[in-house]
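[User] Could I get a sequence and structure tokens?

[Assistant]
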Amino acid sequence: MTLPDDFLWGVSTSAFQIEGAFHDDGRVPSVWDDFPAHEGQTAAVACDHYHRYREDVALMRDLGVGAYRFSVAWPRLADLSFYDRLVDLLLDNGIAPVATLYHWDTPKSVEDAGGWLARDTASRFAEYAAAVGERLADRVAMWIPINEPAILTLLGHAIGQHAPGRVLLFDALPVAHHLNLAHGLAVQALRSAGAKAVGTANNHTPAWPATPDDVAAAHAYSALHNWLFTDPLLAGTYPAELADRLPIQDGDLAITAQPLDFYGVNYYNPTRLRSPSEGNPLPFELVDIDEYPKTAFDWPVVPQGLSEMVTALRERHPNLPPVYITESGCSYGEDIEDRARIAYLDGHIEAALDAGVRGYFVWSLMDNFEWDSGYSQRFGLVHVDYETQERTPRSSFAWYRDRIRR
């Protein structure tokens, strides 16, 4: 397959999952700092990327990627000098910086003032976006205001699995609108600061009905997980079945629907749904997909789901901007000779190329702190020994390097 000359091969990480350094350069606490994780683990050190970023950029240079997608920590707003150093070093090594402004690490002070349930948080986020844009827009190649708002809404506010740990079910829907509004305001702020290219990174999953009688359940789930965070950005609308639950004010949808230079898809697996059992307050129930291999996270490995999702996006939104796969990867064990990860990446990269996307970012460059699962899940092309912080490239690192060259 002939790729466009500007096809972008990359890797992705997020600040909270790798940086550590909770008390450096005036960082303030985030909602995740003390949130319960696997066996009581915390990200206070994580991969110590804050102090070892030079070593990690050298790994990326050896890997041969054209871009590195990282996130800026909102809790570090008081001093952004670390990101100045990181961006400059990336550019010195021929790697395009792709900056995500928000990967779930809400400052605790913002949460205490209402968090994403409060409309004012969208304005506070826009101020943060303006400050980061003023500092870095002259050097960052691509911007993503908010990563995976669906996961923050559903896991963080609807069922309490992620920070801030709220269990609100459908009463969490105002969070979705405030995140979409914050996205639009941040796009405006970044463009005012001179940002070169602004897009988004939404988590998407094909919704499969378990039986022909479960189509309505799959439709309801897709509206909530996929279209609630796509339609307002690309069409200035909300799914009809959810719109009357959202605190929309006059002019909001014109803000959410800012023109985008690219659209990021984070894909891991499809989801199978059935009609809810009696007493279930939700209009669907999740059903195991057991006819495919599973990752260590028990996620089914279904490469064709990636191309299925990109096709669905283009059918629903014919004006879809150029698509990048901004996250795609898998968790397996400690193994350095990780043949299963290679097979996963091979299948998903081929599905992405078949779908005609403009770039592919592997999640993740290195093993990291996997939110409520702590250090129990390893997504890295690079193995991290959390006791010594030694980095060891896995076989998948060499495979991806060779794939990029080829």
